[in-house]
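Changelog excerpt

This revision adds worked examples to the README so contributors can see how folded entries look when concatenated. The first example is reproduced verbatim below.
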Amino acid sequence: MTAEIQRKRKILDSKQLSRVIRRMAVELLEKESEAKDLMLVGIRTRGVPLAEALAAEILRMEEVEVPVGVLDITLYRDDLSTIAPQPVVKETHFPTTLSDRALVLCDDVLYTGRTIRAAMDALIDFGRPRAIRLAVLVDRGHRELPIHADVVGRTIETRENEVIDVHFAETDGENEVLLLEKLGE
């Protein structure tokens, strides 16, 4: 039996989301002395448009093109056996070497911390970065692992039956962040 999902409210509209991303880009630049030493790595699926949006803001502000990588963590997940009998692995791509760079993992929602743990495991298999930072659009709490974000767009306290649903124009047709509720669980 699948739980029904109901929209509770819009947390961020397109204009608010743009402002949050701009602020996150400023925070990233403040934490890293040289933008040219950064690489943003988006975790599939919605971490990728976040990384691209942050890179575009940094380019606009600093006139420095920050490389953006794409990371698929499917085979690193600790719940792999429960998500699908034959999970689909998509491409992982880095525009340059990871070694000696400050990487910023980008994801839409930080929840238990398990996705980020899997992403760090995957990154280490591709090289030895100088540092790994974490930028998330929404931190909703309920951590199961000792993982925290270095840059957070919004912190939203949620209940276990609530879901944060992030939409980007590139993947969903519009930019917004919604709070949903699972009914009947």
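The second example, added in the same revision:
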Amino acid sequence: MRNYPSLLALAVAVSFSNLSYAGSDSGVYVGASVGTADVDYSDSAASAKFDDSDTGYKFFAGYNFGLVPFLNLAVEGGYMDLGSVEGEIANTTGNKIEANGWAAYGVGGFDMGPIGVFAKVGYFAWDSDFKTSLGNDSDSGTDPAFGLGAKFQLGSFAVRAEYEVFDLDKADIDYISVGAAYTF
């Protein structure tokens, strides 16, 4: 009878040790998310002001190096469509901006069992299309991008929530999303 409490304690310890490594899955991962992009654009020369939000989505892939337990160091890239927002140009309404692009990040994170937090820093190569009553135009560029997130991971599957900031030439875009990732 004395061995049962010892065996139970050993089983619990082994279970928790496996759970503590649940978020440290290294290798290639892919994922997708959907969220809300909040666009704040102003151009005083064109008398333009956009302060609107729309649904956006992204597809991403990365590689987690898994060098140290509990610590994630990764590279990540992906495509983002940040939707279409409406605003005012020269006192006319019904004007739209559509933005999308490719992002590349360095990612660092810390795992606490199946729950983890991460931050990322990189660049966003963007394209935007303006559709206005005065005509259509487009613009593009590459600007800094930052993000914070949290994940819940069991085995190779993770659910992620993220907040990303894109600091473009004349626009600031905040993107809040929820998605999933799978590590191979």
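Reviewer comment on example two: The first strand starts at residue 27 and ends at 43. The chain has one helix and eight strands.
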